[in-house]
UniProtKB/TrEMBL annotation:
It comes from the Eukaryota. Coiled coil: none annotated. It comes from Populus deltoides. This is Uncharacterized protein. One of its GO terms (molecular function) is ureidoglycine aminohydrolase activity. Residues 1-25 form the signal peptide.
Amino acid sequence: MLTSSLPSLLLLLSLSSNFLNVALSDDGGGLFCSAPSVFETETAASSSSKPLYWKVTNPTLSPSHLQDLPGFTRSVYKGDHALITPESHVFSPLPGWTNTLGAYLITPAMGSHFVMYLAKMQENSKSGLPPNDVERFLFVVQGSATLTNASGAHHQLMVDSYAYLAPNSKHSLECDASATLVVFERRYSPLENHFTKQIVGSTDQQPLLETPGEVFELRKLLPPSLPYDFNIHVSLSLLPSLRSSYFSRLKF
């Protein structure tokens, strides 16, 4: 799906209250704003009463008049990009995790240099560790889970919370009920005398960045410093019709 010879890597993932789109680019390409589906029939009032990322865990986002068509999908698979929609997600037991189902959205087997997957943690579930020298980023879209690091410090991750785990750092994520997370893992690109550290936060705690002339508010989740070899931007639309829409971009 994504190959290193391509000048730009783009991955769009529908994951939001109206649409949460994730775009990955190795050259700092433009941002992609999501727009409401032309098949959307819900009113703004009914949408606002639902959980923030309810469409991530909804079984299908297909238009109602197309849901009975076998094999119907809005997903698009091309040589330099992919649009992976929820009806295309295939969940199975996640290797190394306990009582957790995962749906891989992008893997090195498809030509990329990172892994992206959804993790559905169930009752009494626990995460596994990534491979050696691999950094991990977690973003909670449903439920809550407890992150524990090697020193024994605990952090309760709620919806819209996230955590960055440095490569080779011992940690575990446990869930007593249920939680759904977006997980990114990538082999870290080290710099001499520069080291990353664990970061735990939530979107609303991050300062707004200036976006002159744009119709969205932009927040950066990771420090823009040399040790961190990627970053994540999350935006909230300022337009009333898109008030609950989020999108994010990862830059490597």
